[in-house]
């Protein structure tokens, strides 16, 4: 028998926020959890998916779904896309075990069924002033997700997107480089 290997350190992508993590109030955390649950109910809004939201969330969710960028992202548009909500992901990256949950995952397929694009979508309720703040705060988390999905689908384009309910925008991420200008 060979020598035993050291146990892999377990990390979570959300733990990659590092020094930018904010604690927030219990009320803020409850709101964030409720917004995540509301977005989780949404399949494809252009295919008749019309979830009913709790009264306290309705204004935020209706406003978010009225934003063309957000509507477009949550619309199938006749494309061949597999939708996964609250998708668990496990991967070995940099010698460590990465374990997390992707809020919404779109797997785009070509006509032959091969994966051409992957969209990793995360819902953020943080009270921020700009897309740059979200990019800085969540770059590590989204990069971990991106790397894991790139390992699974090496031929596919992998995009990381944040839906911000504070800014009411879709923020594209590529490492720490902002793709979409902040409002």
- Identify low-pLDDT runs: 18-22, 175-183
Per the principal axes of the C-alpha atoms, what is the gross shape? Answer: globular
H/E order of the elements?
Answer: EHHHEEEHEEE
What is the number of beta strands? Answer: 7
For the termini, the CA-CA separation is 60 Å
Helix share bin: 25-40%
Question: What features would you describe in this structure?
Answer:
There is one protein chain. The chain has four helices and seven strands, in the order E-H-H-H-E-E-E-H-E-E-E. The chain has helices spanning 26-40, 58-66, 68-73, 131-152, and strands at residues 10-11, 81-93, 96-109, 115-124, 157-164, 169-174, 177-178. 21% of the residues are buried. The model is unreliable at 18-22 and 175-183 (pLDDT under 50).
TL;DR of this structure?
This protein has one domain: Lambda Exonuclease, Chain A (Alpha-Beta Complex), CATH 3.90.320. Strand 2 and strand 3 form a beta hairpin. It is built from four helices and seven strands; from the N terminus they run βαααβββαβββ.
Task: Describe this protein with a few key phrases.
183 residues; alpha/beta; Lambda Exonuclease, Chain A; 7-stranded mixed beta sheet; 4 helices; 28% helix; 30% strand; disordered C terminus
SSE topology sketch:
Layout: E1 10-11, H1 26-40, H2 58-66, H3 68-73, E2 81-93, E3 96-109, E4 115-124, H4 131-152, E5 157-164, E6 169-174, E7 177-178
Parallel strand pairs: 1-3, 4-5
Antiparallel strand pairs: 2-3, 3-4, 5-6, 6-7
């Amino acid at each position: 028998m060979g020598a035993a290997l050291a146990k892999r350190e377990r990390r979570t992508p959300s733990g990659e926020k590092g020094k930018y993590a904010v604690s927030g109030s219990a009320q803020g955390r409850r709101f964030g959890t409720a917004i995540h649950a509301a977005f989780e109910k949404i399949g494809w809004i252009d295919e008749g998916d019309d979830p009913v939201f709790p009264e306290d969330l309705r204004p935020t969710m209706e406003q978010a779904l009225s934003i063309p960028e957000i509507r477009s992202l949550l619309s199938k548009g006749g494309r061949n896309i597999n939708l996964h909500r609250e998708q668990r992901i496990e991967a070995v990256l940099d010698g460590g075990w990465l374990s997390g949950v992707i809020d919404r995952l779109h797997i785009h397929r070509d006509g032959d069924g091969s994966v051409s694009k992957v969209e990793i979508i995360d819902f953020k309720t943080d009270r921020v002033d700009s897309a740059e703040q979200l990019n800085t705060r969540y770059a590590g988390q989204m990069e971990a997700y991106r790397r894991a999905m790139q390992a699974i689908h090496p031929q596919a384009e992998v995009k990381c997107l944040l839906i911000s309910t504070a800014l009411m925008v879709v923020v594209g991420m590529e490492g720490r480089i902002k793709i979409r200008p902040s409002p």
